[in-house]
Amino acid sequence: MFNAFTKPSKKTDSDSDYVESDDSDYGEGTSTSTSDFSSDISPVKNFPVGSWTCAHSSKNPKPNMNQAITAKLEEMVKNYESTNDKWRAFGYQKAIQALRSYPKQISTWEEARNLRGVGAKLADKIWEIAESGELRKLNEFKSSDDIKILNMFTDVWGAGPTTARAWYQQGFRTLEDLRTKAKLTSQQKVGVRLYDDLLERMPRSEAGEIETVVREAAESIQSGIIAQACGSYRRGKATCGDVDVLLTHPDGKSHRGVFTKLIEKLTNEGFLTDHLVSIEDSGNQKKYLGVCILKGENRKHRRLDIIVVPYDEYGCALVYFTGSAHFNRSLRHMAKKMNMSLNEHALKYGVVRKGNEKIHEGTIIPTPTEKSVFEHFKIPYRPPEERDH
């Protein structure tokens, strides 16, 4: 039997939108006239959906005319996240979104300053990159041994920026220091031991093999079960950081009891090597986060999540765990503007909010299929490969 551990501070791979993100407006959509206190019990009529990311295919994206600038700003986000400077990281993220949607190359400082959410100091940095192709502050980060170590520590599975800084302040400088001197959680011990394997992206073919192993094991336990790899694999990416396999059963009841049996079976077969987290949430979804390895020579350990859901939640769960993170944020924020809410469990209407606080959870809208989620938003269904925003 495997042990259930406390949920770690972060999920290291962002292929699926596992952790609920905030509903911040990333510069998309059109503001509605809803007030801070809304009691409308039906979706907003004639809502302008055309300007939202989730309404468009990622296969024909608008070209990023400022790619050289956004690439360096993304590096800055990573560095600020590693130093736990969340405010600056968020500011840079908003600037990146504004630059990506800007229809031409930035040619003056004033253009940069006029971007939504960009202040004078950030405009200075954008203009510095536009003029010289370099950013002095980023070069300082790159040359800083402190930042390199913090970035390395932050990449340990189960460790976030706060933990990374604490390790640094305790005098640790290498992974060997962590192995031999640090007081690590069970998840962090796995993260350190398998650091290189878990950090490396796997080829798509390997992710498909992992999906097959999980599906065949689940089918041997319960016939008729559905097992679908989600995340970047379902979106058609050539490489994957981890594999998320979503399981359910069409009869609405035979998924029960599969979760524990499946984990035990895969463990006994040697496929699951390390157990990280086991969660049963209030919506009767069960989630397992662990590490697996395929049989054969020169195989590497890979991160695997297994999620078992009731069939009446499968449509929303399939959207949620497929991602991308930006696509999901767009859907959730649009739902909020329409007095609705969307998560991995359900789509609801008539949600009442006062500011950011929900004071009425709303009423569940049946979503028997993934396509039905799109239909309720009155946006075109986007197959997974068109959601890689």
From TrEMBL:
Subcellular location: Nucleus
Chief location of this protein within or outside the cell: nucleus
Region described as Disordered: 1-39
Domain DNA-directed DNA polymerase X: 64-388
EC number: 2.7.7.7
Keywords from the named record: DNA damage, DNA repair, DNA replication, DNA synthesis, DNA-binding, DNA-directed DNA polymerase, Lyase, Metal-binding, Nucleotidyltransferase, Nucleus, Transferase
Compositional bias (Low complexity): 30-39
Entries under PROSITE patterns matching the protein: DNA_POLYMERASE_X
Described function: DNA polymerase that functions in several pathways of DNA repair. Involved in base excision repair (BER) responsible for repair of lesions that give rise to abasic (AP) sites in DNA. Also contributes to DNA double-strand break repair by non-homologous end joining and homologous recombination. Has both template-dependent and template-independent (terminal transferase) DNA polymerase activities. Has also a 5'-deoxyribose-5-phosphate lyase (dRP lyase) activity.
Protein name as catalogued: DNA polymerase
Taxonomic placement: Eukaryota, Metazoa, Spiralia, Lophotrochozoa, Mollusca
